[in-house]
Write a structure and sequence with these properties.
5 helices; globular; alpha+beta
């Protein structure tokens, strides 16, 4: 997993150790002051944690078929606090409000998929299924694939795609399914997220 690109994505998207709070029964929206403090503490207490572990609560790992995570307001603020702590700094009120403003009102998914060419994912789009409703992504970005693996005769590629959806109308305690598809509309990979289990 390209940890640097994951770090860059969360930092640009704006978008511990304590563990998931079992009292939470829905994804946090419009963070309360206590939830803001919780996010900041999560980020500060986990500055040395591997990024994949840091975002584990918000991620789905399908092994050879791909990896995906969702940037919620909580994760965006936690990551901002982590980045500040790595520089021995503290978030001020402007930093906090700016981070939350940039992540408010949308659900952003980053997906890492595998293919045989550098451009395998360039036409990928995504849908978000919530119950019997289907929401198309309002914006997406597909990065060129980068090589990985040890066989230069048969190079494999991993590419990151970002898919944006408005959060309005999506119940924060529902299970949503992200469906990545090619330009013909054929399903490439799916990722199921239980929003009630994440902050």
């Amino acid at each position: 997993m390209r940890l640097f690109l994951l770090i860059l994505f969360v930092a640009l998207t704006l978008v511990p150790s304590y563990s998931f709070d079992p009292r939470a029964d829905a994804m946090y929206e419009k963070l309360t002051p206590d939830q803001r403090d919780e996010a900041i503490k999560y980020g500060k207490r986990n500055i040395r944690k591997d990024v994949t572990e840091f975002i584990k609560e918000w991620s789905v790992n399908n092994g050879d078929t791909g990896f995906a995570f969702i940037t919620t307001e909580f994760l965006a603020l936690a990551f901002a606090a982590r980045q500040a702590a790595l520089q021995s700094a503290e978030l001020n009120n402007f930093d906090i409000e700016d981070t939350l403003a940039k992540s408010s009102g949308k659900l952003v998914f980053r997906v890492s998929l595998f293919g045989n060419t550098e451009t395998f994912s360039k036409d990928y789009t995504a849908l978000l299924k919530v119950g019997d409703k289907v929401h198309p992504s309002t914006f997406w970005n597909n990065s060129p694939g980068e090589t990985y693996g040890g066989d230069p005769a048969k190079p494999q590629f991993v590419a990151d795609s970002d898919f944006y959806f408005p959060s309005e109308g999506i119940n924060p305690d529902s299970t949503v399914t992200l469906v990545v598809q090619n330009k013909e509309g054929k399903e490439v990979s799916t990722f199921s997220f239980d929003l009630a289990k994440m902050r």
